[in-house]
Every structure is written in C-alpha cells, then in structure tokens.
Amino acid sequence: VSDKKVAVVGLGYVGLPVAVLTARKGFKTIGIDLDETKIKAINEGRSPIEDKALIQALKSKPFVASSSFDSISEADIALIAVPTPVKNELPDLTILKNATVAVAEKLPPKSLLIIESTINPGVCDEELIPLIEEKTGKKAGIDYHIAHCPERINPGKVPADAVAGNNQDINFGLETINRVLGSNSDKGLEQSLAFYNAILDAEVKPMASIKEAEAVKVVENSFRDINIAFVNELAMSFHKLGINIENVIDGAATKPYAFMAHRPGAGVGGHCIPVDPYYLIEYASGFGFEHDFLRMARKINSGMPQFTVDLLQEALNEVSTPLKGSTIALLGLSYKSNVDDDRESPAFVVKALLQNLGAKVVAFDPHSQKSSDVDNLDDALKNANAARNYGT
Ligand SMILES: NC(=O)c1ccc[n+]([C@@H]2O[C@H](COP(=O)([O-])OP(=O)(O)OC[C@H]3O[C@@H](n4cnc5c(N)ncnc54)[C@H](O)[C@@H]3O)[C@@H](O)[C@H]2O)c1
Fold first, then answer.
1. Is 272 one of the catalytic residues?
2. Catalytic hit among 272, 273, 361, 363
3. pLDDT at site 154
4. Positions in the chain whose pLDDT score sits under 70
5. To the nearest 10°, the Cα dihedral for 168, 170, 175, 177?
6. 3-class state of residue 3 by DSSP
7. Which of 151, 177, 337 to mutate to test the pocket of ligand 1 (most atoms within 8 A of CB)?
8. Tens digits of per-residue pLDDT, 33-74?
9. From the CB of 118, is ligand 1 less than 6 Å away?
10. Ligand 1 pocket: which of 115, 217, 271 to mutate (most atoms within 8 A of CB)
11. How many angstroms is it from 25 CA to the middle of ligand 1?
C-alpha cells in the first residue's frame, strides 16, 4: 500500500479504469470530472460505462469522485486523461489545455503531472509546459515534474465472463499492457517509472524524451489506420475482380512472419484511430512535411460507409428491390464489438447515406441503446428488406 495520493482527471473510458486500478493498488485515489451525472453515479457505486469489470469494481466505491480540483493541492501525482478530439480534421487541444491549467494551478511543489491523453509529438514541450508557466508561473522540472505515458487500453476486448484461451485479447487488460513513457527531467522519469511499475504488471519502457513517447502513440494508431485502409482498398478492388477478400486474408495469414491479418469493414470508428493520425498530419505539416500516406488512409477509411451502401444497393438490385422505400435493419452502432462507445462510428454515416437515398433505417445495438431506434432485435428485423451487421 502506498502513502501517495493520486488524482485522476477525466473519468472516461481511460480515466475511470485507471482510477479503479490505482485505488486497487493501494494509492489514495481521487477522481475529478466536470460531468456531475458521472460523478453522482460513481459516488453511488454505479458505473457510467457499460463494462462488466467496471460495474463490479465500482460497487465497492473504491474512490470518491468530485468536480472540484481543490484536492489536487494534496496530490503527489495528478494524471490527466481528458479527450483530445479533432474538429474538421484538425486537432483540438482545448479540453486538454483547460484541464491542464486547472490542475497546474493547484499542483503542490515537487508533484508529478502525468498526461495520458493521446497527443502529437511536441504538445507537452511546446504547448502544455509553456502554458502552465504562463498561467501559473510554475516551471517544469523545478516546481513540478511532467511525464507522458500514452494509454493503450483496449476497451471491450475482455468480456468479464471470458475464459482464458478463448479470447485472443484476454492477456491485454489495462494492467498487463506494456507501456512507454517520457519525461524531461531525471526525477520525472524516475517518479513516473516507479508509479507505473507499482500499478502495472507489464514492461514500462522509458523513452529518451517526452516527444518520443508522444510519437509512439500516434505511430501505433496510424499503423492501424493504414493497415485497415490497405485491406479496405483491397476489398473494393477484389469486389470488382471477383475475388473473396476474406479468403485471401485467411490464406495470407498462414504465412508465419511479416504478415498481420487486418479485416475490411464499413469504416473506422472510436475516439482513437480515426482521430489520432490527424494530430501527426497537422504537426508535421507545420514543419512543411505532408503525410500523404496517412491522408490517403484516412480518405479510404472515410469512404467505406459509401462503399458499404453501394454493396447493399447492388444486393437489393439482385432481388429487384429498390433501396428507396426499403426498410433496412442497421445492426451494430458502437465502433466495435462489446463496447457502448459509438463515437466516430461509421454506422451513423451509413445510416445517413441510406436515409438520403430514401431508405427507412431501423438501427439497433444492445450496447448502444441511446442511439438505437428500437429496443430489441426482433423489432429491428420486423419488416426489414435487408439487414446489415457491423459486428465483427
Ligand atoms: N477510449 C480509448 O479506448 C482510448 C485508448 C487510448 C487512449 N485514449 C485517449 O485517452 C484520452 C481520453 O479518452 P476517453 O476515451 O477516456 O475519453 P472520454 O470522453 O471517455 O472521457 C473523458 C472524460 O473527461 C471529462 N472531462 C472533459 N473535460 C474535462 C476537464 N476540463 N476536467 C476534467 N474532466 C474533464 C469528460 O467529462 C469525460 O468523462 C483521449 O486523449 C484518447 O485519445 C483513449
């Protein structure tokens, strides 16, 4: 049990499991968020996120949540996990900057500030550290230490009732995923390494700088976006060539090295993969470098809802049914299986495209009831001329 106090700022898909983990590992944990509904739920022992492990863990009220930043003044470590979205394909750091200033104002001397939000290289050194100094007069490495440890959590991949061996991601829970971190002071690196080694059962690799740690995360998610774009492009090409893409990927996947199977789909969703590449694209563009490859991947993946609708229209033509006036059951709204997160989900683009073509769309996802048009599968399928399932 540690006598250190940790304040986790931003209790979402990242911050909430992190706060649960730090509390379980014996840190005196406080959770801070601006969303009063979320705070109320957490303090009443309910999880604001549909996740079996979180629902179970929060029942015992492992930490207290608040919308006040006052308790930061007693924290040894303040960890920020607020959203870093894009607006019109451009990074929007407003939320992170606001949260950072609010935290920095209360940071006690010698404390450690950790940024877990996904950011492009340069954000800590070139934006956050100068901003903190401007607003509070506090200097990094002297008044406080700063580290960046990009989060790698993979929500929804480990159902609570999963049995080891039947889920390939069973070993990649928050606690057991290897991490990288960077700091710009020896003390910051030492303190943040000690913290993550205390809460994780995984390798924590120190990087030579904060900038490298920031770059690791955008590279990981850009890698995924590019690989998905590649198979999506193949899916569109092979459709014309009359070759079954899934069979071909299964075949290629028998190669034991230098091939990694990715699957085509209706697009890429979630708060990370369709968002993070824009952070690198924009930062590099400020230095006069154009990331053509990343832009192309974004373009291909963003075009997949249209291709999906084209395929459906073709299939309906085969049975002499016009899309206009048809009822389409749209099954699956969250961005991937077993999560309630439907941010940036291509399913909504598919829905809008179908509606623009005069189809009646009945959407249903048991994990995303708030965005569903009906509350059960039977009602979604009733009267449907076609059903489209986005689950994998
Ligand atoms: N969701 C993922 O799977 C995932 C994985 C790895 C990294 N990330 C990164 O982690 C960061 C957080 O993502 P998320 O999915 O947890 O977001 P989220 O929207 O689920 O949660 C963020 C929380 O921050 C709160 N918040 C907003 N402004 C605040 C402020 N000024 N002060 C305090 N709280 C504030 C919101 O109310 C919300 O509860 C992002 O940078 C994201 O790219 C997310």
1. yes
2. 272
3. 85
4. 1, 157-172, 388-392
5. 0
6. coil
7. 151
8. 999 999 999 999 999 998 888 999 999 999 999 999 999 999
9. yes
10. 271
11. 22
pLDDT given for residue 172 in this prediction:
64
Give the pLDDT score at 161. 47
**What is the CA(50)–ligand 1 centre distance, in A?**
16
pLDDT of residue 378: 95
Predicted local confidence at residue 327, as pLDDT: 96
Atom of ligand 1 nearest to the CA of 118: 41
Given this model, what pLDDT does residue 3 score? 86
The confidence score (pLDDT) of residue 2 equals 76
